[in-house]
Amino acid sequence: MLFKRRSPASFWQRFRSAVWPQKGIWRAPVYIYHRTVRLRGTPHAIAMGIAAGVIVSWTPLLGLHFVSAFAIAFLFGGNFFAAALGTAFGNPLTFPFIWLSTWKIGSFLLGRSAEGRDHINLAAQVKEFHLSEIWGPLLEPMLVGAIIPGLITGGASYAATYIAVRSFQQRRQAMIAARQAELERSASVNGSHN
To answer: pTM for the whole thing?
Structure first.
């Protein structure tokens, strides 16, 4: 098999690799950064796409994150690929924090208290698909609670992405202009020698 290890990894090697990847935990964020700044488009379009993805990552609508991010990007002139990259903000490491915080913020904003509330069997409700029974105690507070942190992190990601993309594009234009000037200078030197 192509790219297979010569000797199988031991349990401890697999465990270490799962906890702390050999290439480091910063590999994925650095890749997303480089992929983002190299996208074609205006700094606004790319930044708006990233912001759209980050904003929808706060919502509990897991199966609709891409579609929602594309819709927001379309409405505000964002880049669709950047919107897809922005949804990486919601991942298995951040979802527990996102869900808990949005539920608490939403419950506070709606004036609901968790004290004295009947508990719901979420697994059974999802399995039987009783959306009406999980809407009030769970989904509604999470949707309402997603508005404030979504707008804050979306705005921050828009600003950071806009600045990063603009500076990368300016550096690239300066390098292209310098390379073009060097080519013209060498062409004129070669032409004068002939």
So the answer is: 0.73
Question: What are the residues whose beta carbons fall under 8 Å from the beta carbon of 84, sequence distance 6 or more?
Answer: 49, 53, 66, 69, 70
Q: Which two tokens stand for residue 20?
A: 């702390």
Specify whether the CB–CB gap between 71 and 55 falls below 8 A: no
Contacts for 35 with CB less than 8 Å, ≥ 6 apart = 85
Please list, in sequence order, all residues whose beta carbon lies within 8 angstroms of the beta carbon of residue 158, skipping any fewer than 6 positions away.
47, 48, 50, 51
- CA neighbor of 95 nearest in space, from 84, 87, 83: 87
Instruction: Give the C-alpha separation, 46 to 168, whole Å.
Output: 12
User: Which structure tokens are listed for 81?
Assistant: 């690929």
Virtual torsion, Cα 102, 26, 79, 158, nearest 10 deg: 60
Which range, of 90-94, 114-118, 123-127, 153-157, averages the lowest pLDDT? 114-118
pLDDT in tens, 67-81: 999 999 999 999 999
